[in-house]
Amino acid sequence: MLVHGAGGITGGLIVQLAALRGVDVVATASPRSADRVRANGAREVIDYSDPRTGETALHAAAGSFEATDWPQIALLYGSLSRLDPSPVIEVNRAVAVGMADGPLAGLAVLAPVLDSETLADYGPLHAAHGFLLEKAGYSERARGAWARAAAASGNAAVRDELLRRHVDPL
Question: Are residues 136 and 111 in the same domain?
Answer without folding.
Answer: yes
